[in-house]
Amino acid sequence: MTIARPRRSALYLPASNARAIEKARTLDADVVILDLEDAVAPEMKAQAREQAVQAAREGGFGGRELVIRVNALDTEWGADDISAVAGAGADAILAPKVSSAEDVAAYRARLANAPLWVMIETCASLFRLEQIAAAGPACLVMGTNDLAKEMRAPLTRKRTVFHPALAMTVAAARSAGIAVLDGVCNEIEDQPILDEACRQGVEFGFDGKTLIHPAQIAICNAAFAPSLEALAHARAVIAAFADPDNAGRGAIRVQGKMAERLHLAEAERLVAVAAAIAER
User: Fold this and answer.
1) Among candidate residues 37, 38, 34, 32, the one with its CA nearest the CA of residue 18
2) CA-to-CA distance for 85 and 88, rounded, in angstroms?
3) β-sheet bridge partners, residue 117
4) Does residue 125 register a pLDDT over 90?
5) Cβ–Cβ under 8 Å, residues 168 and 129
6) Phi-psi region of 229 (alpha: psi -120 to 50; beta: other; left: phi over 0)
7) Which residues contact 238 (CB under 8 A, 6 or more apart)?
8) Computed from CA positions of residues 181, 185, 189, 194, in that sequence, does the dihedral angle turn out positive or negative?
9) Cα atoms found within 13 Å of the Cα of residue 62, Cβ hemisphere only
10) β-pair type (92-95, 116-120)
11) pTM over 0.90
């Protein structure tokens, strides 16, 4: 499956904040995630749910994907959240604390045809990544803050202890042909740290990164967009394989580098992503 839709930046916003929802319609994030879970106090859960449903029905988010993160099914709000948002018209529903393929099935059974995204943020999920990815979600989303809490491991700048989890989550998503987003960076004002975190996410192979503040969007979009150099090489690879002189060849030289058919597929994906970003 070729994933061409840009999901460079996915901004969490508390659905309890009506002004934030309205502002989201003007921001340059590729994805807006209206949160009913961590960002909403218990006494505001019902109001947040109503406002998220209203926002989804009203639309006005343009080319941005609108996702609603519900509370987990084992909480007092989860069942009501899912019942309310399933038919509201959001582009996807994001389920937290998913630890198994059975959890995915439980959400899918309640959502009918609404696309499902799932959070990878529990220790148990790390041992079942392949099964979770194959169970039918459209996207895996790293929840590094919750994972750090459950592991009792510090979420350091380089995230060294989490490297295996990050890499295996990307591998599971790619194996299933679905999208995958990196966890948040908690630094809002320190741009060099955010830039480093975004570039690390690119190196791991994530499609984009979840964010906690609008100030993070521009850096994230720039990091996860194909560079001019990468695009130039991708177009050169496509042109080289289209050359009749290279017909039937599985490997050729392009700009001093070896290019195989697998590089052609990636080059085509990269150009498609760039075109989708241009349309945004």
Assistant:
1) 34
2) 5
3) 94, 139
4) yes
5) yes
6) alpha
7) 264, 267, 268, 271
8) negative
9) 12
10) parallel
11) yes
Token pair for residue 106? 């439980």
Helix (H) or strand (E) holding 227: none
Q: Which two tokens stand for residue 217?
A: 């969007």
Average pLDDT score, the chain:
95
Alpha carbon dihedral 114, 24, 60, 69, in 10-degree steps, equals 10
The whole-angstrom separation of Cα 269 and Cα 3 is 7
Q: What is the DSSP letter of 44?
A: G
Q: Is the pLDDT of residue 2 over 80?
A: no
Chain-centre distance of CA 102, in angstroms? Answer: 21
| Percentage of the chain modeled with pLDDT above 90 | 90
- Which residues, in sequence order, are bridge partners of residue 120? 142
pLDDT tens, position by position, 68-110: 999 999 999 999 999 999 999 999 999 999 999 999 999 999 9
Which domains, from first to last, does the chain contain? 9-224 (3.20.20.60), 228-279 (no CATH)
Query: What one-character-per-residue DSSP string does 48-78 give?
Result: HHHHHHHHHHH---TTSEEEEEPPPTTSTTH
Q: d(Cα 127, Cα 108) in Å, to the nearest integer?
A: 21
User: Which DSSP letter does residue 226 get?
Assistant: P
